[in-house]
Design brief:
The chain is an alpha/beta fold and 246 residues long. Helix content is 48%, strand content 15%. It is built from nine helices and seven strands; from the N terminus they run βαβαβαβαβααβαααβ. The longest helix has 29 residues. It has a seven-stranded parallel β-sheet with strand order 3-2-1-4-5-6-7, sandwiched between helices. The protein has one domain: NAD(P)-binding Rossmann-like Domain (Rossmann fold, 3-Layer(aba) Sandwich). Helix 4 links the parallel strand 4 and strand 5. It is globular, with a radius of gyration of 17 Å. The chain starts with 6 loop residues before the first strand and ends in a 7-residue tail after the last strand.
Amino acid sequence: MKFDGKTAVVTGAASGIGRATAEAFARAGANVVLADLSAEKGEMAARQLREAGLKASFIPIDVASDQSVADFARTALGQGEVHILANVAGYGKGQPFVDNTPDFWERVVDINLMGPIKLTRALLDPMIARRSGKIVNVASDAGRVGSSGETVYSGAKGGLIAFTKGLAREMARYSINVNSVCPGPTETPMLMALPENHLEAFRKAIPLKRFAQPHEIASAVLFFASEHANYVTGQTLSVSGGLAMV
């Protein structure tokens, strides 16, 4: 898959799946705009890509902030066209629903659902005018089948999947493809912060008996963003080692 001449925005690009996705796009020839809440880690990730001879820049964003999303979009679009948006940024932690606080609910929904909705809207008009674009939302298998200890996270990711399908229907007339990737347990800082007994239970439940590596999720994102998926829209692809066979 080649992305020469394309600009891809990747949120959550400072670490985990987001960073792997940004690197994959860059190595495939794209000009990548890394977006993340952590300026230090985001700048470092972009610098490392540039040092490898790849095209990358960093713009900070807090997807939970309306003003930050607006500032990001203005800066990104000011640098040129955005052809691809990968909404990868996410947030969650394992905790029984009855122990959640309303502040926690709000943060989970703001980052996992409203953040992608707001950034998509902020970058959408030029895609409509150009009548082309690829939007890939990284949801979760938790949004397809539910996940104990991640009830509100499951709801937010389920909402992101439904948003993807609805937007795909509206944007089809403009030749804008909208799809979602649902990772299963992946070796990221968020997952590895769980207690070891939880991690072992996950491993036993996965038919392939291992966690995904971030680059394996990135490969699915790149497929949906590529010309190979020009006739694919409104779809949800689980990349979970067989954990969720939906």
